[in-house]
Design brief:
Order of helices and strands: EEEHEHEHEEHEEHEEHHE
Number of strands: 12
Helix content: 10-25%
Structural class: alpha+beta
Number of domains: 2
Strand content: 25-35%
Oligomer: single chain
Strand order of the largest sheet: 1-5-3-2
Largest sheet: 4 strands, antiparallel
Radius of gyration: 19 Å
């Protein structure tokens, strides 16, 4: 599964530590990256389909039937599966829906961890221009789980392995060998009772784990680089549209312990409940876009 190509927008609590606001971040040369052409229109189709198709060939991006708050959260992801908490703004940022079609001058650039940060920068520029968007980032206390090393020695579990695969190269068509049953690199899958995640940073893995617990998970492991994990736990449920493939059908029935025990025993990590500050995006100003 491509973590960015068909990422549906589901707004949830922020899943990371405080960093300088991505909305305010300028380009290194002072010129803001921007799409070559872009259209932003109110959605009037009533189509129930909605989401963002990000990595279209030729540098394209299409968003269908989405709110401004969803676009802001999507544009300000810091790593794959980062779901930002976005607050503030006028009521219409949750009620009005928009269709966005944009195209860059060249193909998308994907970083080694699978994040198309250049394209997201262009989307932030578009939101600032068309919606007159102004926002800032601030820390707010939230109930979270901190993902931490389980032991002082920092010994990794047998189901947590470092990966040196470059997801940018994978997105360009360079396909390294797949691990049996684990799915492709730079992707994840959740057959019943299992989570396979390949070639992700620890913040992204924390975000994936948070889908199966009752609060956001924030990475505090201190582990750098990209990793593959296999996690077998009772709480892991497949998505509603899950259809098992041949490799999933070949798996023995899952019989994992609770996810809290599994994270410790299989990954060498632990989930520590805390009330901790997390970075929240606050919309200070937004205007409906003019017709174009």
């Amino acid at each position: 599964m491509n973590p960015w190509g068909q990422l549906l927008l589901v707004i949830a609590m922020v899943l990371a530590v405080a960093v300088p606001s991505a909305i305010q971040q300028p380009a290194a040369d002072g010129v803001k990256p921007a799409f070559e052409i872009a259209s932003v229109k109110p959605n009037t189709s009533g189509n129930s389909g909605r989401g963002v198709t990000l990595l279209q060939p030729g540098g394209g991006l299409v968003a269908t039937n989405v709110t401004l708050r969803e676009l802001v959260a999507f544009a300000n992801q810091r790593y794959p599966f980062d779901q930002r908490e976005v607050t503030g703004g006028p009521p219409w940022v949750d009620s009005d829906r928009f269709d966005v079609v944009a195209k860059a001058t060249g193909e998308h650039v994907v970083d080694p961890d699978g994040a198309p940060r250049q394209t997201l920068l262009m989307l932030r520029t578009l939101l600032a221009e068309r919606f007159k968007l102004k926002a800032h980032e601030e820390n707010r206390d939230r109930s979270v789980y901190l993902l931490m090393m389980a032991t002082a020695e920092g010994t990794l579990g047998l189901k947590l392995r470092q990966s040196d695969i470059d997801c940018g190269a994978v997105m360009k068509g360079q396909r390294p060998a797949m691990q049996p049953g684990q799915g492709p690199p730079c992707g994840f899958k959740t057959p019943p009772g299992r989570l396979f995640a390949n070639t992700f940073t620890m913040p992204a893995i924390a975000s994936l784990i948070s889908r199966h617990v009752d609060r956001p998970v924030v990475d505090r492991t201190g582990l750098e680089g990209r990793f593959d994990i296999e996690l077998e736990a009772a709480e892991i449920k497949p998505p509603a549209d899950y259809k098992p493939g041949p490799s999933d059908l070949a798996l023995p029935p899952a019989a994992g312990p609770s996810i809290f025990v599994a994270v410790r025993e299989q990954l060498g990590l632990k989930l520590e409940p805390q009330f901790a500050p997390v970075a929240v995006l606050v919309i200070d100003h937004a205007e409906r876009p003019s017709a174009n």
